[in-house]
Design brief:
Blueprint (H helix, E strand, L loop, with lengths): L7 H9 L5 H54 L15 E2 L16 H6 L5 E4 L23 E7 L13 E5 L4 E5 L16 E13 L13 E7 L5 E8 L1 E11 L5 E4 L17 E11 L30 E9 L3
Parallel strand pairs: 1-5
Antiparallel strand pairs: 2-3, 3-6, 4-5, 4-6, 6-7, 7-8, 9-10, 9-11, 11-12
Length: 333
Amino acid sequence: MTMSALPPVFSRRAADQAGFTLIEMLISITIGLGILAGLVGVLATTSSNSKTNDRSAELMTNGRYALNSMKQELREAGFRGYTWAEPGTPSFAAAPAGGCMGTEAGATTVGFVSNIRQGVWGADNSNPFGGVGNCIPDANYAAGNDVVIVRRLATTPVSGALAANTVYFASTYERGQLFNGVVPTWSTTAPIPAPMGIFTIQEYVYFIRPWSVSATENPLLPALCRVALQADGTMVTELVASGIERMQVQYGRLTTAPDTQYLDTFAGASSDSTSTAWNEVKSVRIWLLARNATRELGYVNTTPYPMGNVIPDFVPNDGFRRQLFSTVVQLRN
């Protein structure tokens, strides 16, 4: 039987077994590439959105944590236990080992530690505690930012034996006094009882540092830091929150006018224990600018950020995303 004599069913089977033509293959490949390109585009968009969300989360986490940390301390600024009267002259068995020495005439580290009556103090766009051996070396200070001091007692009295070298505050309604080593003996002729409570001292100096972990990190990631008073009177730097690039602070002082006047700073030194305008500060306004750790490819940040008395507004013109946080804190004491 010849091929031409095959029944029709066999002819159809032979035709069905024929392969794709070149045109059909090219069309199939083109369609496949289109689908693949679409999937890659969706994947790239998803990845980009995920990175943007991660950067936003980083800004929110760092900024909120930094702001809340400062708010918590500022609310308690000026707390002196049971004492409403002005604190008495400190009775130190030995001068505290450390402290921050300001640039004003007559400033001492002991005066800084013992100035408990001054709950809040601030320097405007400058570092008054720079220089070799001071509490904020010049290399650790990011220029153009404010410096804020918060002083207060611990919220609860100490219990048990007192340490020999720790700075304490003995408190009654009528009197309060700083001491270390031995509880001061108050006059027995005056009707002043023994201390109702003995509290440890908590003093913090907040500032912006150009780096978070190391001065050699690349890129440098600025951070909100604070110098904290230790039990023996020394000051130790602590990292509060990474990614905080700028800080501006204004202080609200009650006046005869029916509103609060906010200023960038007042007269009076950080170790001046006499009555100054700083004793009349009732609220604090804070601006913190948070910045991402890494640049974003193809992004240029030209957003103006208004903060305090910085004029004109800060415009970064770089590839870092930022977010500005601000709040007003009412001082309770």
